[in-house]
Amino acid sequence: MTRTAEETKKLFDTWASTYARDLENANGILEGYETSIDTAAEVCPVTHDILQLLDIGIGTGNFAQRFEAKGAVISGIDLSEAMIEECKKLHPNYELRMGTFQTIPFAQNKFDVVVSSFCFHEVSPSQRLDACREVNRVLRNGGHLCLLDIMFASHSAMAEAKSHMLSHWDDSEDYSLVGDLSENLYASGFHSVQWVQTGRLHWICLAYK
What we know:
Blueprint: H1 5-15, H2 19-23, H3 33-43, E1 52-56, H4 64-68, E2 73-78, H5 81-90, E3 95-98, E4 111-117, H6 128-138, E5 139-152, H7 155-165, E6 176-177, H8 178-187, E7 191-197, E8 202-208
Parallel strand pairs: 1-2, 1-4, 2-3, 4-5, 5-6
Antiparallel strand pairs: 5-8, 7-8
Helix pairs in contact: 6-8
């Protein structure tokens, strides 16, 4: 059964104090986390220009800091207040607010780049189209989305992964299919949607406005 938004918030509030340390040795469905994060940061076209970048589900800032190193000005949102507080300790220069994919508390056309890592699957399938539209709203024309998450090419691929993961599989999660997310992005006004698979279970999606 899929978790509610309140249950997800409680999970990440509880996890916040050890989150960064735990991901250093990620296993199960997050195995290869650091490799996927590094690959996404390389694939995402952010140069050393000053760019306004939003990280959705910023957590403790592990993904965002890779773009800060390229010269981006970082804003971030998270549904967990505890995660925001941990991120503030590590990155006091980031502009951080409470928010989600469905409710981004920033103005229209504010950002050159929107990124997110291992967060989109927390959006209910019924709200994913609206989430894509909300991301499109805050992107400037010519901007792009770089989304890294646990995703699958087909229902069969998901079923195979579930049988392989056994006790590491969490039935409360509802992962996206590549085709479904592509359709939502195109329907939201994005174009040139591109995909890179970084490992057995991880995909990068690049989409341009």
